[in-house]
Specification:
The chain has 386 residues and is α/β, with parallel strands linked by helices. The chain contains 16 helices and eleven strands. The strands form two sheets. It has a seven-stranded parallel beta sheet, sandwiched between helices. The protein has a four-stranded mixed beta sheet with strand order 9-8-10-11, with helices on one face. It holds the Pfam family DXP_redisom_C.
């Protein structure tokens, strides 16, 4: 029996994690649940899984839940509650599926407390990869990737010497605007961006997929997860999203991991590794799989990949600045304050202005994140869109 805590339990990854648990009640027990402000869904999850504690970061939402809930589960709130859900004594594994930079502090706390991490929050490694991986090594905890691409690479590396790896190949669907040019993207709407052709994900990550910033973040994440130099990490556009990623070895062999577009597959593998267990899910039908296409990404139109390569190679706090700028820009786009292509402009301006710090600490990262958000907010005020 593996006892788990799910941070971000009402989001896309969180709800799918609980779907995996439903199929394997004999393998998993949910001991903690944490969400931002969805008190209605969290209450349903509490009633179903009866954890030791449940957390709503938003204190008003927590108060609403506490006022009507009469069961045995302890209701907590705010950052204190979130950290309790990351470090409690009754679980051994933390699924970190909080969105964005907000996942960093509880993930660090969980590692410090000796918890194994099923990592769905890529921003944690983007902004603090060196810090996180060093701490995990010191504490002897596992960081197992939940992202479909990194779970695929993780599986393709099994049983092989890392020194024989020639290249990591991250596949990308290309998002909803694959094949379009810059002039065709000037006035695209958030609704169009959110119509992802193959995956069902949260709003922020779906916008990141449209800009290919998401793939850029995954490049930085892969660098830290697999201790791989950036010149050995390559992105390949694969619109069918059947091949989730690949590893090329020095003899020319390429090992690929294939599967349906079901996030429960990598979630379950991260929770059961090194074992595999059955999952009731749709399977690939190779008799009806007519084609698999691959192409080079258009980085002139979709700048997210090159921006991430640049940030990663500069190093220090530059990836943190990239991430903060992107989070501010994506939120502004979703709220109708800027246009799609302005997301790139904000990131580029931030990276041009930011002077990276190379003695990276948690304190330095939180300071840079706050500074960049303030600067990006000032940029937004200068823009003319309402």
């Amino acid at each position: 029996m593996k006892n788990i805590s799910v941070l971000g339990s009402t989001g896309s990854i969180g709800t799918q994690t609980l779907s995996v648990v439903r199929q394997h009640r004999d393998l998993f027990a949910v001991k903690a649940l944490a969400a931002n402000n969805n008190d209605v869904l969290l209450e349903q999850q509490i009633n179903e899984f009866v954890p030791d504690m449940a957390v709503l970061y938003n204190k008003d939402a927590a108060a609403r839940l506490a006022a009507r809930y009469t069961g045995p589960v302890k209701i907590l709130s705010g950052e204190e509650g979130l950290l309790a859900a990351a470090t409690g004594e009754t679980f051994d594994t933390v699924v970190t599926s909080l969105m964005g930079f907000a996942g960093l502090k509880p993930t660090l706390a969980a590692i410090e407390a000796g918890k194994n991490i099923a990592l769905a929050n890529k921003e944690t490694l983007v902004v603090a990869g060196e810090l996180v991986m060093a701490m995990a090594k010191k504490k002897g905890v596992d960081i197992l990737p939940v992202d479909s691409e990194h779970c695929a690479i993780f599986q393709c590396l099994q049983g092989n010497d890392r020194k024989t790896v020639s290249k990591l190949l991250l596949t990308a669907s290309g998002g909803p605007f694959r094949g379009k040019k810059i002039n065709e993207l000037e006035n695209v709407s958030a609704k169009e961006c959110l119509a992802h052709p193959t995956w069902s994900m949260g709003k922020k990550i779906t916008i990141d997929s449209a800009t290919l910033v998401n793939k850029g973040l995954e490049i930085i994440e892969a660098h830290w997860l697999y201790d791989m130099p950036y010149d050995k990490i390559q992105v390949v556009v694969h619109p069918q999203s059947i091949v989730h990623s690949m590893v090329e070895y020095i003899d020319g062999t390429v090992i690929a991991q294939l599967g349906t577009t079901d996030m429960r597959l990598p979630i379950q593998y991260a929770l059961t590794y090194p074992k595999r267990v059955a999952l009731a899910a749709k399977r690939l039908d190779f008799w009806h799989l007519s084609r698999l296409d691959f192409a080079k990404p258009d980085t002139k139109t979709f700048k997210g990949i090159d921006l991430a390569y640049a940030a990663g190679q500069i190093g220090g706090t530059m990836p943190c600045a990239l991430n903060a700028a992107n989070e501010v820009a994506v939120e502004a786009f979703l709220n109708g304050r800027i246009k799609f292509l302005d997301i790139y402009s904000i990131i580029e301006t931030v990276m041009q202005k930011h002077k990276p710090v190379y003695e990276v600490s948690a304190a330095a990262l939180f300071a840079v994140d706050a500074e960049v958000r303030s600067f990006a907010g000032a940029l937004l005020k200068k823009m003319q869109y309402k």
